[in-house]
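User: Teach me something about this protein's shape.
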Amino acid sequence: MTEPAAVKQTVTVREKIIVALDVENAAKARSVMDELRGEVGAFKIGLQLFTAAGAEFVREVAGSGTRIFLDLKFHDIPNTVASAAVEAARLGVWMFNVHALGGQEMMRRTADAVSEVCEREHLARPNVIAVTVLTSSNAETLKEIGIETPVENEVGRLANLTADSGLDGVVASPLEIGLIRDAVSAKDFLIVTPGIRPFNATNDDQKRVMTPAEAISAGSNYLVIGRPIVQAKDRVGAVNEILANLGSDSQ
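Assistant: First, the predicted structure itself:
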């Protein structure tokens, strides 16, 4: 008997918010998660927290049912990245990323390895996405490393390469959402946007930023927001203020 097709679930605006746990230890991360669990869609664990708390912390949190975006930006030879990606899948994370600059072979082998191990070990397959150009970078930054292409052209090229490699989406500045949609034909291609700053927040070290409402309107699937929420005196209030400025808690 043929299995019925999965019903696509509606993603609310609240669920589109990923809170960046850019804190120095597991205790602070747990405090943020305890306060915001159920208020947002997921939490991002990046290099700082992963280095401090380790893979077992990721396994523990993901195992509790909390959606985790593991933001380690794997970039190495194809075999190494594919092997690391398999271990990320085994941790139970909802999403993780690699660097698109690692090239098509690296990304394709990663996608294939993750799909294979998830099928064989009956694991939920995480979303595998690729970083295009960091939101802290601009044209001058690219020139320093020998890339003369304008930022928007480079982002579009890397997004197209990511899609051709079989990955699920990209991490990109919200300013490039439109050009990514033009470059990639797949309607279900995910765009995850850091560099999100509420209208009353500072840009910090981000150079290519946008407000949450602007990013959602442009077509972002998920918004990564860190300091404006994590450093707020009332974190739930900060989330609700963002939602209020978005106008509704709907798709």
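Now, about its shape. The mean pLDDT is 89. The chain is about 45% helix and 15% strand. If you'd like, I can walk through any region in more detail.
User: That's plenty for now, thanks!
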